[in-house]
Amino acid sequence: MQKNLQQLLENLILWLKYQRQAGIDEIPIQILAQIRQIDMAKEKKNIPSKGPGDNLSSIKSLSQLQTLVEQCELCELARTRGKVVFGEGNPSPILMIIGEAPGREEDIQGRPFVGRSGELLTKMLRAINIDRKEVFITSVIKCRPPGNRTPSKKEINTCMPYLTRQIELLCPSIILCLGGIAAQSLLNVTKSLSSLRGKFYDLNGIKVTVTYHPAYLLRFGGMKQKDLKRKAWHDLQMLQAEYEKYKKKTTG
Ligand code: URA
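^ thats the input. predicted complex w/ uracil below
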C-alpha cells in the first residue's frame, strides 16, 4: 500500500511537471480523480508472477523491463538466440497480442511477428479494422527456440515473469492469445486450444481470448485450412466486437 502510494505520488509529480512544461498551470479536479481511477485499475490487474522467484515489481517502466529482458541469461535459449524479441507496439494498448516464441526472422530482426506468420497476423488484424500500431505484440518466450521447436515447460516458467510484468505495465483491456502455448501459459490451464477458443476469460480484470496461431493456419491446405480459417474468423469477429466497445469508451 505504502509503495503504491509512493508510486502514485511519483507519477503525479512527473505528470504535473510535464503539464507545467506544456504551459498548463491549472489542473481541473476531475483529472486528478481520473488519475486515481487509472492507478486503481492497474492495482486491480496486479497479476501474480510465476516462475523461479522473479520479483519484477521494482521494474517501473517498459523500457527498464526491456533492458533487463535483453540481458537475460536465465535459460539455455540465451546461448543460441540471435536477438531477444521483447515485443513492440502501443505502450497503452486496448489490445495486447501474445504469441508463442520468436521464429527465424524475428530472431534476426529482434521484432515480433515479422515473418510469414506476422504477415498473416497483420492481415487478420486489418480484417477486423485494427492497425498493428494500435496494439502491443509479444510472445510468451522472448528468445527463439532452436529450429522453432516448442518451448519447454522450464523455459516457459523462466520467461513467464517477464510477460506478467509486461502485462502489468501495459495494462491492456483485452489480451488475444495466439495458439495453445500462449493460452495455456497465461490462463494456467492444460486444455486444448480448440476447447479454449471462442470465449472470453477473466484474468484479474483483463478479458482474455484465444485463437489459432497464424503459423498453424499456414500449415494446412484444402478443407482443413478452410475450416480453421472459418473458426479463426469467428474468434476475430468476437474480438472485434469487444475491441470496439473499449475503443468507443476511450474515444468518447
Ligand atoms: N510466432 C510467435 O509466436 N511469435 C513471434 O514473434 C513470431 C512468430
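Residues 32-40, 42-53 have pLDDT under 50 and may be disordered.
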